[in-house]
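INFO batch 0412 | record 1 of 1 | parsing
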Amino acid sequence: MSDKIPGVYLCKGCGIADAVSVEELEKVVTDELKVAHCVTHECLCSDEAVQAIAGDIEAGTVNRAVIAACSPRVMADRFRFDGTPVIRANLREQVAWSQPPGEEDTQMLAADQIRMGVAQAKKTEAPEPAAIPDVARTIMVVGGGVTGMTAALEGARSGHDVLLVERSDR
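INFO prediction complete | emitting tokens
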């Protein structure tokens, strides 16, 4: 297992920079959380920003991305990088759009979203493919009525051994 190297990507768009100080969030990331790679962008979902994130991943600068921007429910396809865990810190809907802009509590909520995202990134493991054991491919059909006979025939046609079980001999 390789070292976990998170990168935090802060978006200023969609009213986020109007509601919170993105510069203060950068200080939380670099000073408090000790994350070496923190990038701020005007619009993280732009082609330019997505390509920059992909470039950081390909270069090995980061192997986990914390996207501090919009909800994980939107733009999911933009922030999918094969083999790299991506954590979404929702600064748009859960902070900028739902809290009073410029207030101390709003800033603290944004910082907490970042802290949770970084903590999740540091603990997340990439999924490993499941090893499927060798299992029997025999199908047992219970009941020799119309449904049972149809299931037995379809199973046999698909190349499986079929065991048909009936309560009586007729």
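INFO post-check: The chain has a mean pLDDT of 93.
INFO record closed
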